[in-house]
Amino acid sequence: MPSVSRTALFGKIHKVLKKYYKPVAPPAERTVLEHLLFACVLEDARYESAEEAFAALKHTFYDWNEVRVTSISELSEVMAALPDPRAAANRIKRVLHSVFEELYCFDLEDKRKKNLGPTVKWLEKVDGTSKFVVAYVIQAALSGHSIPIDAGTMAALKVLDLVSDKEVAAGEVLGLERAVSKSKGVEFGSLVHQLGVDYLSNPFSPQVREILLAIDPEAAGRFPQRRQPRAEAPPAAEAAPTDSGAPPPPTAGRKKKTETAPVTPAAVESKAAEAEMAESKAAEPKPPESKKAVAAATKKPAESTAEPPVPEKQHDKPPKNEKVEKVEKHPKAEKQPEKVEKPEKRLAEAPKALPAADSLGKRKPR
User: Fold this and answer.
1) How far is Cα 207 from Cα 183, in angstroms, rounded to an integer?
2) Least reliable range by pLDDT among 89-98, 194-203, 204-213, 217-226
3) Is the backbone of residue 72 left (phi > 0), alpha (psi -120 to 50) or beta?
4) What is the DSSP letter of 46?
5) Would you say the C-alpha torsion 301, 305, 307, 310 has a positive or negative sign?
6) What's the distance, CA 114 to chain centroid?
7) pLDDT of 158-186, one tens digit each?
8) Following DSSP, what letter does each residue of 327-357 receive, concatenated?
9) How many helices, marked H, and strands, marked E, lie in the chain?
10) Residue 165: exposure state from Cβ atoms within 10 A (0-12, 13-18, ≥19)
11) How confident is the model at residue 269 (pLDDT cuts 50, 70, 90)?
12) 317-347 pLDDT, tens per residue?
């Protein structure tokens, strides 16, 4: 943006803000240290809340050294009027520690007599100070020209397209001191600070929107957008393909899911049970085949019982596992014919087994 138009836009900001806010001048009776500590309290806070918190801080504690050794949690309780009392308490403690470790006192009045350049460099090195704090001390205590800009003010200027992303990251507005004269610096700084606090507390406020649009009507497209409930994309994406037919309500869809989920394991189990029943039925022997098997089983024990012992050598003895098989097969073979065979078949087959046993008994020894 050209410098002329930018300067004119800063002048327009000053005129518009005077209609909505009242300028606030810093008290002249405060010391340099008090301006420094008040700037730590004022950052991202309203003037009324900052004055209340600073007064409570001065009346609650005996001196600044007692504030220095007090915990952050206790300081934040005293400054409860601030929007972020813990951050302000942290800044105050760090500033007091840094000043005391360097000077062993809390008197900074000699900084008024020194040149502005070395004093600004010293302020920037003090632990706990920010660019807003340094600019406020330069403007209020050292009679310099510097406009304090905090996070809320920077965000409001970003909506007005007066700062770039680099300036937002650096916390500086280039050319602001040239666009606003020193005589109007204090007034302009207080007005812009009030706008920044209102924007930071509620960027969707109708008053804030009205002020920003009065400054720049094209800022409507740069306002932050609210988060809408339709941002939940998964349910909308699932409901989109069912628009052609009769889409069921979300509750019906949930019911279908709960009903179909437990059906699949039950169907699998039923199918598995049916397969097992079919296998068991197929494994059962048929009646005629079972009779033949039983008849064949009855012949083997008859032959084995009628066979006389044959003397053999020790190395010709069968292994132990064969004996175990005979012992295991023999009782099963005797039990099975009793259940299935009829006594008539036993009598018919018994004479046939006897000659076989006799012939086996007449074997010649090896």
Assistant:
1) 28
2) 217-226
3) alpha
4) -
5) positive
6) 52
7) 999 898 889 888 888 988 888 899 999 99
8) HHHHHHHHHHHHHH--HHHHHHHHHHHHHHH
9) 18, 0
10) exposed
11) low
12) 445 544 444 444 444 444 444 444 455 555 5
CA atoms lying within 13 Å on the CB side of residue 203: 16
Provide the CB-side half-sphere exposure for 161 (13 A, CA): 13
Q: Does domain 3-222 have CATH number 3.20.19.10?
A: no
- 8 Å CB contact between 88 and 53: yes
Q: φ and ψ at 312, to 5 degrees? A: -130, 165
| Residue type, position 201, single letter | S
DSSP code for 142: S
- Give 96: exposed, middle or buried? Use CB within 10 Å, 0-12, 13-18, 19+: buried
State the pLDDT confidence band at 222, using cuts at 50, 70 and 90.
confident
Q: What is the mean pLDDT of the chain?
A: 76
So what's the pLDDT on residue 363? Answer: 52
Q: Which residue in the block uniquely carries the two structure tokens 């004022």?
A: 42
CA-only gyration radius of the chain, Å: 50
How far is residue 299's CA from residue 302's CA, in Å, rounded to a whole number?
A: 5
Percent of the chain at pLDDT above 70? 62
Which residues contact residue 194 at a Cβ distance below 8 angstroms, ignoring those fewer than 6 apart?
17, 21, 24, 46, 47
Angle between helices 320-340 and 287-306 (to 10 degrees): 130
pLDDT at 189: 94
Separation of CA 289 from chain center: 70
Query: Which two tokens mark 34?
Result: 């008090």
Residue type, 67: V
Within the chain, all domains assigned CATH 1.10.340.30 are found at 3-222
